[in-house]
């Protein structure tokens, strides 16, 4: 290993003074330079120079229009590297241009941040989410077995006359089990798919960070914010079995009941579906009459009913003229407040 390091240092030396491992490189002259020799090299005014860190050597591409020139700048308007002749032309006269090394470092920093976020934060979270899938499956199977066992015990007491009912309820459990498993499978597929995308993105970023291809850097679009949001978790209301005392005339009712399987997906963050403007000076409270209508109060003695499109459907004014202190909506659509006496 030490011999390899010595060989590497011997191979990379300053072209002017033979100092090993030079930190600088002239990307036009294609020579390595130590810090002490940079000034001497720049003093040669017979040709242009472009000094940059050794690790970024090769960053300046050849101009596709002027073959003897190299591109020291990037036209951010056209998103292409440009040489001095391109800069002087009318084509890029009013365009915004940046030093290609400055632009490269500017683009490199967020890419490195993306890579760190993916490797240190996002990818581990997906791995933890993937690990929970087998546990969820085991829990589903365990609860399913418990439910079936309870049904079998009831079936032993009721004997043959309830076999048909028992079989029907087992099928219902299996259907709910299948629904639950299907939900978990979809969740796993979403997680594994995103893990695959993250893995590929990490590999692509690593390869991209090792290259000096300005074209590839300019095409890079971050997906980190997209990956930060994990697929929505779901909450399951598990079915339960409630046994009853056996009554031959009311067998079906006395076997018990299975609650329905309820799968609710939970969002990591609240989602804004719509924004509704009201005539209230300050909205102090809101009561939903339905999924599409809501009562509001605040700032005056009027309570207003709006739909989600912001249309005023109805209003109520207190007889006393005082501002209502609270309100609630009953099933029969009656608005109640702490202020008695309301004019419709």
TrEMBL record:
Residues in B box-type domain copies: 9-54, 63-100
InterPro entries: TRIM45/56/19-like, Znf_B-box
Keyword Ribonucleoprotein attributed: no
Alphabetized UniProt keyword annotations: Metal-binding, Zinc, Zinc-finger
GO molecular function: zinc ion binding
PROSITE patterns, per the entry: ZF_BBOX
Oxidoreductase in keyword set: no
Domain of life: Eukaryota
Identification of the protein by name: Uncharacterized protein LOC111125044
UniProt source species: Crassostrea virginica
Lineage: Eukaryota, Metazoa, Spiralia, Lophotrochozoa, Mollusca
Gene: LOC111125044
